[in-house]
Amino acid sequence: MKRIVLVRTNGPRNAGSVMRAAANFGPVEYVLVAPQRPSILVHPDFTMMAHGVENVREKIRVLPTLAEALKDCTHSVAFTGRPRDGRLRSDWRELAPQIHPLCDDPRERVALVFGSEADGLNTAELESCKIAAYLPTAAEHQSLNLAAAVTIVLYTLYSGEAVHKRERGPRLASERQLAFLRAHLKAVMGGKVALSLAAKTDIEGSIERVFTRVPIEMRDARAWHMMMRALGSKLAPRDFGIGGPPHDKPQKRRE
Fold first, then answer.
1. Are 189 and 205 in contact (CB under 8 A)?
2. HSE (side-chain half, CA atoms, 13 Å) at 194
3. What is the spatial distance between Cα 180 and Cα 237, in angstroms, rounded to a whole number?
4. Residue 168 falls within a domain, yes or no?
């Protein structure tokens, strides 16, 4: 079993984001140790970032000391980006394969300990943990957001089933629907909006280029037709001699 322990956390947004990560890559126990804001669990930012997690506050324990959070743990890993008093730190990429089987063993309880956003874990807190580790980053920016760090660690230790549902892609307009859209736009924008022949030519050319080169979703096509109707158009595909294949459902004409 994994236990996330956040020590002296200050940001409700980080606390809420960690709650989401714990729900994504659980099962995970979640403990806050001496949070800097007594109202952290009722702060609007916490609620916003933990949105979607059921019974969120029932899944968090708040304890006054790190010792209490670790007392029933068989293993503990402290994460710190800063070396403290020469304490040897392990590269998490090398350490994770050793910790992974412990997290999957129901007889073990592994505490994953993270310090505050302001100054991390102090020397005494590091000494309370059996192992110290760091997440290697690029030299350009070595400071890692607390919630991001916890999410990375939980993801690398996740052994659960991938249950993410396949998402439906956008519904693209058919060739017939695109042909009608271009014709409709040209008829209204070029025929009624353009104030000169040159403007009409430019507008129709632009419509042809834009609405031919890029994929258009059906909802966007509908939105453009609604705009044309708002300008007084009652044109339909048959007005341009555009028929449709059998799978294209005919649209009701709005008078």
1. no
2. 19
3. 6
4. no
List the pLDDT tens digit at each of the 255 positions of the chain.
Answer: 999 999 999 999 999 999 999 999 989 999 999 999 888 998 999 999 998 888 888 889 999 999 999 999 999 999 998 776 667 899 999 999 999 999 999 999 999 999 999 889 999 999 999 999 999 999 888 788 999 999 999 999 998 877 766 667 778 888 999 999 999 999 999 888 888 999 999 999 999 998 888 789 999 999 999 999 999 999 999 999 987 554 455 444 444
If asked whether residues 152 and 184 sit together in one domain, one would say no
Count of domains observed in the chain = 2
The two structure tokens encoding residue 124: 């005494």
Q: Which domain holds residue 121?
A: 2-157
- The 8-class DSSP code of residue 192 comes to I
What is d(CA 205, CA 185) in angstroms, rounded to the nearest whole number? 11
Please check whether residues 151 and 65 belong to one and the same domain.
Answer: yes
**Taking the CB of residue 55, how many other CB atoms lie within 10 A of it?**
6
Asked if residue 53 is part of any domain, the answer here is: yes
The answer to whether residues 131 and 217 belong to one domain is no
Give the tokens for residue 189. Answer: 């924008």
